[in-house]
Amino acid sequence: MRVQESYPVDVDAIRADFPILQRKVGGDISTPGEHDDDDTPLVYLDNAATSHTPEQVVDAIVDYYHGYNSNVHRGIHHLSQEASVAYENAHDRVAEFIGASGGREEVVFTKNTTESMNLVAYAWGLDELGPGDSVVMTEMEHHASLVTWQQIAKKTGAEVRYIRVDDDGRLDMEHAKELIDDSTKMVSVVHVSNTLGTVNPVSELADMAHEVGAYAFVDGAQSVPTRPVDVEDIDADFFAFSGHKMCGPTGIGALYGKRDILEEMQPYLYGGEMIRSVTYEDSTWEDLPWKFEAGTPPIAQGVGFAAAVDYLDDIGMENVQAHEELLAEYAYDRLGEFDDIEMYGPPGDDRGGLVAFNLDSVHAHDLSSILNEQGVAIRAGDHCTQPLHDKLGVAASTRASFYIYNTREEVDKLVDAIDTARELFA
Amino acid sequence: MGIGSDMYRQQIMDHYKNPRNHGRLESPTFTHTGENPSCGDTITMDVQLADDGETIERVAFSGDGCAISQASASMLTQRLPGTTLSELAEMDTDDITEMLGVDISPMRIKCAVLARQVAQDGAKIHDGEIEIEQTKTEGDDD
Ligand SMILES: Cc1ncc(COP(=O)(O)O)c(C=O)c1O
User: Fold this and answer.
1) Which of A116, A222, A263, A337 could form a disulfide bond with A192, CB atoms 3.0-4.6 angstroms apart?
2) Is the pLDDT of residue A349 over 60?
3) B93-100 helix and B109-126 helix, angle to the nearest 10 degrees
4) Atom of ligand 1 at shortest distance to CA of A244?
5) Which SS3 state, helix, strand or coil, does residue A34 take?
6) Chain A contact set for B8 (CB, 8 A)
7) Ligand 1 test: best mutation among A47, A51, A114, most atoms within 8 Å of CB?
8) Where is each NIF system FeS cluster assembly NifU N-terminal domain found (chain B) (predicted)?
9) In order of start, what are the domains of chain A with their CATH numbers?
10) Are A71 and A296 in contact (CB under 8 A)?
11) What ipTM does the predicted assembly reach?
């Protein structure tokens, strides 16, 4: 094997865990699951939208349904107890993965990053924000936080402020210093930008927030899947991420919160599972994290989430990060060979594992359709960062995003497929 | 696969690269603009009616955006003259895909039908049936 060919992770072994990577595409899409007429090998480069799920995680979910499917915290019976233990332990496992020493009490399972954000916005923001207060975000914020805080600010009379993104796609930290002031109650920032690939100095921003007595909320949707993350090193007060972007199932995500802050907060959803005692007149709440998990939770998904974290830990998050960076740099270099390709964000050796770009004179949606016809799955659109695209002066961009199973050859296929579009539109 | 793309057949590429009736009419009977906010496709259609006030005589379009939206607008400017406003009102998505002569993937349908929607809304405003500033097709959810 040439040195050039080696990777920080065992790509062949990893690919074998993901049967979907072997499938072909291109046939009739109106019959999902029937692949007889598909003829084009899949090159999956849309991992920032969602990652695939390895056999190990699917097996954990199957084992749950075959072996101990039951509602949690309700039955005295055997199955319910097994399900409860597994679901509770999953919280501890995910907490450990992100360095939350408080364990389950600091990790609330939600549907996804978006719900985690809304939980804090409603449970904390509606009560605590008011006229004269400010929420500081960044210009590269995902709609999950941008729209949420924008709308909560409208309801409460608070102000939203955006830290400027400079021409290299990095945060203007001088501007951050100006914006974060005594009026600031929340600094809500994205850790790794899903559009620019920028890795933001979230620990520094958390310090700045704490200096003025504000909380720091980090959107880790793109960071937890791709690098070692320690929420206590960052000193985040809140931290959100999604299972489906990190080898886990859809329908589950997490909100980390410092225990004392979560304890102070009122519930966001009411109902079963989250109460300790109820009378016709009033109710009291369960302990953390159950106070924030009303109703029957996503139990199978929680079990799958923990299995995903096991899977990633086996590979090692340092290795995952190294693989991501290798592919990001390779893609940045290969796409950079062409004068008619404009890339957004910092240079190839200083970014997360994704590259958003535009090909001159070919609309992003045309490009992605042509890539799709060649089996290359990428994202085209505004990637839920519409204001950032407005700032970049483009309506849409095309984004390739990588994960542990991607290879340099797949990046080469992307480049070749772009060439087809270039010829077609020439 | 080579250069023979499924969706981007020669006819589409020809209309995209050499749009027909591109520009503005001098004295349109009505004119209307629409956009796909999420794609950034915009199209303005100028429509000139015959003296009967019902038959479409000339159509021109301007705007920019993806190949599908622009080619569809170009083809429509050739297709519409000679038809009546009520025939225009009845045009549906199938008529557009038939006109384009290719299968349009579901995610791209709104690009393909933008020009038709703009023409139809323009006609309705002209008839006083609706009052809108601009046509906006549903944004995609990304
Ligand atoms: C940076 C960032 N934040 C938030 C989200 C929202 O994640 P979800 O759709 O899982 O809630 C995403 C992904 O779509 C993202 O990339």
Assistant:
1) A222
2) yes
3) 120
4) 10
5) coil
6) 366, 369-370, 424
7) A114
8) 7-125
9) 3-41+317-425 (3.90.1150.10), 57-314 (3.40.640.10)
10) yes
11) 0.86
Half-sphere exposure of A36 (CA within 13 A, CB side): 3
> Å from A375 to nearest chain B CA?
10
Cβ-contact A194, A141 below 8 angstroms: no
Residue B138, pLDDT score: 61
CATH topology of domain B10-127: Sufe protein. Chain: A (3.90.1010)
pLDDT tens digits, A305-325: 999 999 999 999 999 999 999
**Both tokens assigned to A403:** 């994960």
Which residue, by CA, sits nearest to atom 12 of ligand 1? Answer: A221
Q: How far B102 CA lies from chain A's nearest CA (Å)?
A: 13
Residue A131's CB: how many other CB atoms inside 10 A? 9
Question: Using CB atoms within 10 A of its CB, is residue A273 exposed (0-12), middle (13-18) or buried (19+)?
Answer: middle
What is the CB-side half-sphere exposure of residue A90 using CA atoms within 13 A? 31
Partners of residue A424 in chain B, C-beta under 8 Å: 3, 5, 8, 13
Q: Decide if A120 contacts A266 (C-beta within 8 A).
A: no
For residue B6, name the pLDDT band (cuts at 50, 70, 90).
Answer: confident
| CB of residue A114 inside a 6 A radius of ligand 1 | yes
Contact B68 A373 (CB under 8 A): no
Q: Which of A29, A366, A425 to mutate to test the interface with B (most CBs of B within 10 A)?
A: A366
Res. A246: pLDDT tops 50: yes
Task: Looking at the CA of residue A383, tell me the nearest atom of ligand 1.
Answer: 14
What pLDDT sits at residue B95?
A: 96
Q: Where are the alpha helices (DSSP H) in chain B?
A: 10-17, 67-79, 85-90, 93-100, 109-126
- If residue A208 lies in a helix (H) or strand (E), which one and from where to where? helix A202-211
